[in-house]
Amino acid sequence: MAQDRRFRLLKKRFRRLAIAIVASFLGWYFLYISLSAFARDFMAYPAVGNINVALLLGILQFVSTFVLAWRYTRYARRMLDPLSAQLRDEAELRQAEQDRAEQVLAERRRIENWTPSPRHGRRRR
Predict the structure, then answer these.
(1) What's the DSSP call for residue 121?
(2) Per-block average pLDDT, block size 10, for the chain (125 residues)?
(3) Residue 12: its pLDDT value, please?
């Protein structure tokens, strides 16, 4: 599975999205922390009435978190989930075929060794 080009594409798409989201979130978060620590006058500036810039930027932290989560789910539904489902279905099919082949081999070994099949729930008296 790891050698399948579609699996590598899936990993590449996920990695690119994850790096972009994490970088944008951490960049925005550290900008807010830096402004709070080093630009106190700017952060204390009243924006609307008694609401200052720090409070507005703090609220925007929550808004940006929800926007990034929405962006991730939207991208994942369009670009990751269909490819993932296709790969998962093929892997399950391969596993079912492999299980069936193992059952056939086990039955063949049982027949070659002349061992009776186990009887479930029946006892001889």
Answers:
(1) S
(2) 86 94 95 95 91 94 94 94 91 89 86 67 54
(3) 93
Query: Could you tell me which residues are beta bridge partners of residue 51?
Result: 48
Question: What pLDDT, on a 0 to 100 scale, did the predictor assign at position 51?
Answer: 92
Instruction: Report phi then psi at 113, rounded to 5.
Output: -90, 0
What local confidence, expressed as pLDDT, does residue 108 receive? 84
Residue type, 80: L
Q: Letter for the amino acid at 76?
A: A
pLDDT of residue 27: 96
Distance of CA 37 to the CA centre of its chain: 35
Residue type (1 letter), 75: Y
Largest Cα–Cα distance in the chain?
94
Residue 48 β-bridge partners? 51
Closest CA to 79 of 3, 6, 26, 23: 6
Pairing assessment for the beta strands 51-52 and 46-48 based on DSSP bridges: antiparallel
Contact 21, 71 (CB under 8 A): yes
